[in-house]
Specification:
This protein has 282 residues and is α/β, with parallel strands linked by helices. Helix content is 40%, strand content 20%. Helix 10 runs antiparallel to helix 11. The longest helix has 16 residues. The radius of gyration is 19 Å and the shape is globular.
C-alpha cells in the first residue's frame, strides 16, 4: 500500500489509473478505523480494480471545537488495518494540504440537510459537502462507499453529487454492529465502561419499535414511544428521534406518507456525554 500525502499525488495517481481503464473505489473516512470501515473497504475491494481510502479528520464539518479536539486520531493503526485489507492507496493529508485557503463554498443542499443533524449541527453538512466534493474531484472514483449509520449524510452527498455533476456511483453499505447491537463508531472508544454497558439499549429500543408498527401504531406514535423509552433509561438522553421518508429525509406522521424507499427512524442519543447516532428502517 502506498501512502499519499499531497493533493497533487492523489490526483496524478487517480488520473493514471483512470487512463489505464481501471475502476476506482473510494472510501472516505475520518480515521479511527474499525470493523465498520473494514466492511466498506472489503466491498470496494470486491467491486473495483483500485481502492483508495482517505484518512482525514475534516475540520469544516465540526461545529463544536471540543468535538474536533477530542476526535480520536490513530494514523499508524489505521494504515496497518488498510494495508491488511489490501488497499492500494491511503490518502493521509494535513488540514493545510486540503485547505490551503479557506473553503468559502456554500452548497444549496436543500431540505435533506435542514432536518435532524442539519438542524442540530449548523454548518455540519456544508462541511461534509466541501470535503467530499474535493475528494471526488481529486480521486475521480467510479464508486464511493459510505456506511448507513450516517443515514442522512448519504442523502446529503447524493444531493451534492447532483449539484456538482460528478459521474460516479454512491454505494450505501449496511451498519456493522457489535454482538450486543451497538452500532460501530469511532466515538465508542470515548464511552466509559458504564456508558458502554448502557449504549446497546439504543438499538434494542429501535429494533423493538418495528414491532410497534406491526401492532398498528402510526409513525408519530412510535416516534413518541421510542423517545420516551430512551429517556426512561438512566444514562441515556435523546437529542432527537425522528421518523422520516428514507429518500427525502422529511418527517412523516403516518406510514403511508413515506415514498418508494419507505421510512427510516433516525436517532441521536447522549450516552455518558458521548453523542451517538443510529437508525432503523421500517
Amino acid at each position: 500500500m502506498e501512502i499519499i500525502r499531497t493533493v497533487k499525488g492523489l490526483a496524478e495517481t487517480a488520473d493514471a489509473m483512470r487512463r489505464a481503464g481501471k475502476s476506482i473505489g473510494l472510501v472516505p473516512t475520518m480515521g479511527a478505523l474499525h470493523a465498520g470501515h473494514k466492511s466498506l473497504v472489503d466491498r470496494a475491494r470486491r467491486e473495483n480494480d483500485v481502492v483508495i481510502v482517505s484518512v482525514f479528520v475534516n475540520p469544516t464539518q465540526f461545529n463544536n471545537p471540543d468535538d474536533l479536539r477530542t476526535y480520536p486520531r490513530t494514523e499508524e493503526a489505521d494504515c496497518a488495518l488498510l494495508e491488511a485489507c489490501g488497499v492500494d492507496y491511503a490518502f493521509v493529508p494535513t488540514p493545510a494540504e486540503v485547505y490551503p485557503e479557506p473553503d468559502t463554498r456554500v452548497f444549496d443542499l436543500g431540505p435533506v440537510a435542514e432536518v435532524m443533524e442539519g438542524a442540530m449541527r449548523p454548518g455540519h453538512f456544508n462541511g461534509v459537502a466541501q470535503i467530499v466534493s474535493k475528494l471526488f474531484a481529486w480521486a475521480m472514483p467510479t464508486r464511493a462507499y459510505f456506511g448507513e449509520k450516517d443515514f442522512q449524510q448519504i442523502a446529503v452527498i447524493r444531493r451534492m453529487v447532483e449539484l456538482e455533476g460528478f459521474d460516479l456511483e454512491i454505494v450505501p453499505c449496511p451498519i456493522v454492529r457489535e454482538d450486543d447491537g451497538l452500532a460501530l463508531s469511532s466515538r465508542n472508544v470515548r464511552l466509559s465502561a458504564e456508558a458502554r454497558s448502557i449504549a446497546p439499549q439504543i438499538h434494542r429500543i429501535l429494533a423493538d419499535s418495528v414491532d410497534l408498527k406491526a401492532q398498528g401504531y402510526e409513525a408519530e406514535e412510535v416516534e413518541r414511544m421510542v423517545t420516551d423509552a430512551i429517556n426512561n433509561i438512566d444514562g441515556l438522553e435523546a437529542e432527537y428521534y425522528q421518523i422520516v421518508d428514507a429518500r427525502t429525509m422529511q418527517p412523516v406522521k403516518k406510514w403511508a406518507e413515506a415514498g418508494d424507499l419507505g421510512a427510516a427512524g433516525c436517532v441521536t442519543v447522549y450516552c455518558g456525554g458521548v453523542r451517538l447516532i443510529d437508525n432503523i428502517r421500517y
